[in-house]
Amino acid sequence: MNFKDILNQDKVFNLIARSGDELDLPTYVVGGYVRDLILKRPSKDIDIVCIGSGIQLAEKVAQNSHKNTTVNTFKNFGTAMIRLDDWELEFVGARKESYRANSRKPIVENGTLEDDQNRRDFTINALAIQLNASNFGELVDPFGGVEDIKKKIIRTPLDPDITFSDDPLRMMRAIRFASQLNFDIEPDTFDAIIRNADRIKIVSKERIVDELNKIILSPIPSYGFNLLFHGQLLKHIFPEMVNLHGVERRDGKGHKDNFYHTLKVLDNISKASDDLWLRWAAILHDIAKPATKRFHPKIGWTFHGHEDKGARMVPRIFRNMKLPLNEKMKFVQKLVRLHLRPIALVKKDITDSAIRRLLYDAGDDVEALMTLCRADITSKDDRRVKRYLENFDLVEEKMAIVEEKDQLRNFQPIITGEIIMETFGIEPSKEVGDLKIRVREAILEGEITNTFEDAYPFLLKVGQEMELSVAKRFESLPTPPEESEETSAQKA
Fold this sequence. Notes:
Blueprint: H1 3-8, H2 11-22, E1 27-30, H3 32-39, E2 45-50, H4 54-65, E3 72-74, E4 79-84, E5 87-93, E6 95-98, E7 107-110, H5 113-118, E8 128-130, E9 139-140, H6 145-151, E10 153-154, H7 160-166, H8 169-181, E11 184-185, H9 187-196, H10 205-216, H11 221-230, H12 234-237, H13 239-242, E12 249-250, E13 253-254, H14 258-272, H15 276-284, H16 289-292, E14 294-296, E15 300-302, H17 306-320, H18 327-338, H19 352-362, H20 366-375, H21 382-406, H22 417-424, H23 430-444, H24 452-465, H25 485-491
Parallel strand pairs: 2-5, 10-11
Antiparallel strand pairs: 1-2, 1-8, 3-4, 4-5, 6-7, 8-9, 12-13, 14-15
């Protein structure tokens, strides 16, 4: 590969090269950009190493760009970052590192290019291309990284035990790169992951979950999870998932291995969507099966209620793993809770009310739910899979008909708490909540439509049954209060 010609195609490298020469600093593009260049993967992140001050080089590049470029400096780390057009450039002086046993934060000293390449995590990330005019485009590959790229191998430049003990996050990164690139981890390197797996405990959960999410978003995430499992890392970072592994047999009856079933569901859903949180829903949809597993001599193994218990486990898992406790978590929790519901709707005699309830409960996430349900069909019997998928087609047809007729997605009953309180002259109370539920249930059951003409008389009837006296009768739906300009702007 002619790196000189490739780098000459973009002015940014000539700009960096000229700046390095003006400062008389040996300058190199290193790491991931070089790797991706060889793999023909697009990348706009460039790491630049110089023998000297990376901050000084960044300031010179910014000055020579003539674009009023801002330099963000991090003096404690000796690094600087600038954005130039659509490039993100990070500059650092070459350094060598040493580690203490109880921390992954290195003691850093100035070093040579060789020192800097020695500290890199893997051979495929230890590549450097010189940018100075005298040797522009010359590859420096002391550990055979190009050959490892050709062989599709992840390998550490130095002793893997030292590499992983020094910075245990590199074990996660090894598996992440293998999963993203579909590479193998070299046997000695993988054995070192197994030996050092418990060192992952000194790494922050935020850094671990960042790597885990990248594995989840890889093309075939089951590959990464299998490496995490067999590399003994998964039991430290995600024990709930390890608990899914294994098959118990009793009286000749066994259940499927829910760990490998979950990985199959995850792969299935990854073919349909690159949404991280939908993939998390796939990972967690059966997470409560170990806790709900029961054996009955006549019917075998059951996991009754695993969807509800699983939904209750989601917040704790997200909290423990430092995942966001916001609408993303609630989305995953909702799908875990509802993932069995569509399966119950495959019967021919299913009522519209059951469809209404699913549409109401799923709201705008109904398509994501159906995607998860389809991914959950993992039988080895192709005819059975085909039959289930056809049944889901019928369910979706019924859902479309009911949705078009009743407009129930994320619907709000026409009777509000304010109307109830005004009608019966009562304060906020349990009675108000009970009345709202009765009206909502009647709409979902199809007893009444979600119109004021139907719902208000029903409200009066239920209130009478509860011995509430009417304080005010509405002849028509009260006009909603006018929106302020600020509220209208927020909605827009």
